[in-house]
Amino acid sequence: MALLYKNPAIATLVHKETPYRGQWVIYQVPNLLFSACHEVEQLNGDRRVVEEVALHSLADAQAFSSYLSSYGWSRVWKP
């Protein structure tokens, strides 16, 4: 049940040219696994997960982030 990071959301990516596509958020889940969720904002302001990808290591999470970057998604840096 160990976690590498304090915040479970370790990366957020958005497609700046088409913001209506929502965002991909890479989460750390227990047992050092990761999950990438494609979240889209609904009319009522809630976010809904429309797609989820299981990632089995930090390397997989980094590779998936690079894959999304090749299609125009970019990382949002939050303080």
Describe what you observe in this structure.
The protein is of the alpha+beta class. It has one domain. It contains 1 helix and 5 strands, in the order ββββαβ. A 5-stranded antiparallel β-sheet has the order 4-3-2-1-5, covered by helices on one side. A hairpin with a 5-residue loop joins strand 3 and strand 4. The mean pLDDT is 87.
What would a concise description of this structure say?
This protein is of the alpha+beta class. The protein has one domain (9-75).
N→C terminal distance: 26 Å
Helix content: 10-25%
* C-alpha geometry: globular
Number of domains: 1
Oligomer: single chain
Largest sheet: 5 strands, antiparallel
Protein topology:
Layout: E1 9-15, E2 23-29, E3 33-41, E4 47-55, H1 58-69, E5 73-75
Antiparallel strand pairs: 1-2, 1-5, 2-3, 3-4
Which key phrases capture this entry?
79 residues; alpha+beta; 5-stranded antiparallel beta sheet; 1 helix; 15% helix
